[in-house]
Amino acid sequence: MSGNGAVWGRVRSRLRAFPERLAACGAEAAAYGRCVQASTAPGGRLTKDLCAREFEALRSCFAAAAKKSPRGGL
């Protein structure tokens, strides 16, 4: 079981760094938020895939941020 400590240490390290990495996606998050907000404003109508382009950009940014290793390692 001593090997599990090393695994949890790496997991904790990645989880701690995650909010900082996601902060790099601010522009994508703002664009998606603006799209959704405009669609749900009075008179607007949010439908499936209406903001798909913005969502895909945000998802791609999150995925890239999640793949980065903490502190430049691994």
Structure description:
This protein is 70% helix and 0% strand. It has 74 residues and is mostly helical. Helix 1 (2-22) packs across helix 3 and helix 2 runs antiparallel to helix 3 (52-67). The radius of gyration is 17 Å and the shape is elongated. The two termini are 23 Å apart. The model has no long low-confidence stretch (mean pLDDT 83).
Computed Rg: 17 Å
Q: Sheet with the most strands?
A: none
Please state the average pLDDT score.
83
Rounded to the nearest angstrom, the distance between the terminal CA atoms is 23 Å
Instruction: State the total count of DSSP E strands.
Output: 0
SSE topology string: HHH
Low-confidence stretches: none
Estimate percent helicity: over 70%
- Enumerate how many helices there are, as a single number: 3
Question: What gross morphology would you assign?
Answer: elongated
* Structural class label: mainly alpha
* Fraction in beta strands: under 5%
Tags for this entry?
NDUFAF8, elongated, mainly alpha, 74 residues, NADH dehydrogenase [ubiquinone] 1 alpha subcomplex assembly factor 8 isoform X3, 3 helices
